[in-house]
Amino acid sequence: ECLQDVFDLPALVELMASVRRREVRVVEVDTPVPSPFASSLQFGYVSAFMYEGDAPLAERRAQALSLDRSLLAELMGREELRELIDDAALAELEIDLQALGDRGKATNEDGLHDLLRRLGDLSADEIAARSTGTTGAWVTALTERGRILPVRVAGHERFIAAEDASRYRDALGAALPVGLPAAFLEPVDDPLLDLVARFARTHGPFTEEDVAQRFGIGPAVARKTLAALEADGRVVEGEFRPGGSGREWIEVEVLRLLRRRSLAAFRKEVEPVAPEVLARFTVAWHGIGPHGPRAATPDALLSVIEQLGGAPLPASALETRILPARLPGYSPALLDQLGASGEVVWCGAGPIGSTDGWVALALADRADLLLPEPVEAELSPPAAAALDALGSGGAMFFRQIADAAGSTDDTELLLALWELVWAGRITNDTLGPLRALLRGGTRSSRPARARRGPLMPSRMGPPAAAGRWSLVPERRGDATRRLHAMAEQLLVRHGIVTRGAAMAERVVGGFAGVYAVLKAFEESGRCRRGYFVEGLGGAQFAAPGAVDRLRSLEEPGDKAARTHVLAAVDPANPYGAALEWPEREGTHRPGRKAGALVVLVDGRLAVYVEKGGRSLLSYSDDPDVIGPAVDALALAARDGALGRLTVERADGEAIEDTPFAQALIDAGFRPTSRGLRLRA
């Protein structure tokens, strides 16, 4: 459509053929501004798309800097480039212009003479800063031979090249020594204009006051001279220096160099970051460590659950690793409070053995969209009876369910309830039953025939069935709405959604299922697609602001806060999901398994702890990495989050035969007959 309807492509083909046949001659012309045709095209395109979407900061600055200066002035009203100039690029350019870098310094007498011709008048100290040798001897020798001259400028003694003698005499009234060649004393057309033009060529953005102070002239004279240079197209006025204020001047070629270097810096920022930066980002995105709330409050817990909504998590890790990592001082009573008040709903998503399972949390108003679909499987007769009893409406205590279902065996009914929980069909208003199950409370504490005795609660039943049971909110049948909600939730949870992250969460339909929704989000400006993390393909979708935050973490942060112990299945751990597990020798392979832990140091996987803590896998030989990782592991064990930790093997070998042994002992582990142990 663009090439056939908007542009006349056949005419272009005919023109190029004429060029090839030498019927049309091509003449190259270097113009200071785009041609009217090119300018109108660029102006129309940029004005239409410059504010489209929520592009990351580096992309926006690079796009703006790639415009022609005159076009940019037309679009923005005036040349306000402060936000588009890179500080480091400006500082580096000013060092080069002033010959303060190693490559620009004078290394001999001839180099010093060239330096004065290029930069103009310099004091003895300024010469020393721009030279690498004995500048005093060089200055004396050059002065004796008449190649440089001492003059007073603005009340200070400086040195100039003899070729500039007439300019300083006529422009500033400098006194010259006798005996100079007549060629150096010939007057020039506009000596002050020449001096100010050279000042502009050798400086970054400057003000009229800077020129006036350097040459000892009045600000009005300096402004008049700069205006003359502007009329010649040699300098421009605008706002250039980042963090500055007021109007400034800059030489045109210096501005081109500055824009080019700033553009290169911003384009470098646009380059994808290393995978370990994504790991640092996900930890920060989930508010773990110094990035999170300072206190555990109901509102803070609601925010955490909003981010974790719908993600299947092991019940054994939920309140020992996942929530405490985000909320220091977390108390189970907080979650029970939100559940009892109807703010939060949880449901099962499959068992893990007999005393653990996958659970998902969600805010009540999003539970019908985010909680996993119930498992389509044939229920046992007791489970079907309990489900029918709960389907009559309302929440019920254990005894009420038993009466409604006609059950006389507490153990049988308890197992039936947990069958329904792991099938994703029923829930409880607290997590008390789940905690009792994790402690092994799967059986009734008294025989069924004595259930109404004085020692047995009349309603609560066994500890693993305490609280009120109810049906999980019915999931919406519209698959499109559920995919839309899941795509939104993935952006909220991960910040940057990749194929691996979606697959790790067992999204219905896989990544292809949510890809179409994420693509529509990008087209409507709700997210950004790009190649943000190296090695993860181009199909990466980022929430607004996530890319800028990702790039801000390219350098490791505070050393005291860089080490994190996470559950292997925690969404904040990208390894095994968005990122592949690092390569290592040996047959042992890590996995996102319930009960396993990972220790991240500066975003790099340092240690993988298998379920039970008996075996470790290491991913670094650097003591500066292993030491903090083991210390963090020991601290987590002492805090009680891991229980008693006994390490028997590391990298497939007995722990005593590995470099880990001394690191663990230094961290507080004690040798036993079965390995190295640390008690909570």
How is this structure best described in words?
With 680 residues, this protein is of the alpha+beta class. 44% of the residues lie in helices and 12% in strands. The chain contains 29 helices and 21 strands. It has a six-stranded mixed β-sheet. A hairpin with a 2-residue loop joins strand 1 and strand 2. Helix 24 crosses helix 26. The protein starts with a helix and ends with a strand. The relative contact order is 0.07. About 3% of the residues have low confidence.
Give the proportion of residues in helices.
Answer: 40-55%
Overall 3D shape = elongated
Class computed from helices, strands and strand pairing:
alpha+beta
How far is the first residue's CA from the last residue's CA?
70 Å
Largest beta sheet, briefly?
Answer: 6 strands, mixed
Q: Residue-averaged pLDDT, rounded?
A: 84
Strand residue content: 5-15%
- Quaternary organisation: single chain
Key features of this structure:
680 residues, alpha+beta, six-stranded mixed sheet, 12% strand, elongated
Q: Could you write a compact summary of the structure shown?
A:
The protein is an alpha+beta fold and 680 residues long. The protein contains 29 helices and 21 strands.
Write the layout of secondary structure elements.
Layout: H1 2-6, H2 9-20, H3 36-49, H4 57-65, H5 69-76, H6 87-97, H7 109-119, H8 124-129, H9 135-144, E1 148-153, E2 156-161, H10 165-172, H11 191-201, H12 208-215, H13 219-231, E3 235-238, E4 248-251, H14 252-270, H15 275-285, H16 298-308, E5 313-314, H17 315-326, H18 332-340, E6 344-351, E7 357-363, H19 367-370, H20 381-390, H21 398-405, H22 410-422, E8 426-428, H23 432-438, E9 469-471, H24 479-494, E10 496-497, H25 499-504, H26 510-523, E11 528-530, E12 540-542, H27 546-552, E13 563-567, E14 597-601, E15 604-609, E16 615-618, H28 623-638, E17 645-647, E18 649-650, E19 653-654, H29 660-666, E20 670-672, E21 675-678
Parallel strand pairs: 16-18
Antiparallel strand pairs: 1-2, 3-4, 5-7, 6-7, 8-9, 10-12, 11-12, 13-14, 14-15, 15-16, 17-21, 18-19, 20-21
Helix pairs in contact: 4-14, 6-14, 10-11, 11-13, 12-13, 15-27, 20-21, 20-22, 24-26, 28-29
